[in-house]
Design a protein that fits this description.
alpha+beta
C-alpha cells in the first residue's frame, strides 16, 4: 500500500511540475510570438518570424503580390520597402519605412497598407509613369527618389514589373 501511494505521489508531482514548466515556457515565448485577433482576423506566427494572418478585406485588393523598394540619393539604405502577399493559407505584409523610422509587420502593416491599396487604380495596361505617380502619391513618398523597383502580381494572373529612376 505504501509503495502504491508513493508511486501515485511521484506521478502526481511529475504531472504538476510538467504543467508548470509548460506555463513558464509559454510565458517566455510570448514576447516574440503574440497572437493578434481583430474582429474577423486570425493571426499565427511562423517559426521564421513571418506573421501569417487573414483579413476578409483582402478580397477587395486586386493583386496577390506587391513588392516595392524606393531609394533616395541622401540615404545609404533602402528608404521605403513594402511587401504584401496573399496566399491560400493567409496574408503576409511588411513595411520598412526608413524615412520615418518605422517598421511594421503582419496585421499591423496590413492596417496601414489596406487604405493605400484600396486607392490605387491600375491594371496591366496602366502606364509606368501613371503607376509611379499613384504610388508616390498614395504612399506619401518624396518625388525626388533616385530609384524605385515595383513587382506586382495581379489577381488575374498578369504581372507588372519595372524599375524607375529620376534624374
Amino acid at each position: 500500500m505504501k509503495k502504491t501511494l508513493s508511486v501515485l505521489t511521484v506521478l502526481s508531482m511529475s504531472v504538476l511540475l510538467g504543467a508548470c514548466a509548460e506555463d513558464e515556457n509559454a510565458a517566455d515565448n510570448t514576447s516574440g510570438n503574440q497572437e493578434v485577433v481583430v474582429e474577423d482576423e486570425e493571426t499565427n506566427t511562423l517559426e521564421e518570424g513571418e506573421e501569417v494572418f487573414t483579413d476578409d478585406r483582402s478580397e477587395g485588393i486586386k493583386f496577390d503580390y506587391f513588392e516595392m523598394n524606393v531609394e533616395y540619393p541622401d540615404m545609404i539604405e533602402t528608404a521605403y520597402q513594402v511587401e504584401y502577399e496573399k496566399e491560400n493559407d493567409g496574408l503576409e505584409a511588411s513595411i520598412d519605412d526608413n524615412l520615418n523610422g518605422q517598421e511594421k509587420d503582419g496585421a499591423q502593416a496590413f492596417e496601414t497598407l489596406y487604405p493605400i491599396f484600396s486607392e490605387l487604380d491600375f491594371d496591366e495596361n496602366t502606364s509606368q509613369e501613371d503607376l509611379v505617380s499613384q504610388i508616390v502619391s498614395q504612399f506619401n513618398l518624396r518625388e525626388d527618389f533616385e530609384w524605385m523597383e515595383v513587382d506586382i502580381d495581379l489577381s488575374n494572373g498578369e504581372t507588372i514589373e519595372f524599375e524607375a529612376e529620376t534624374s
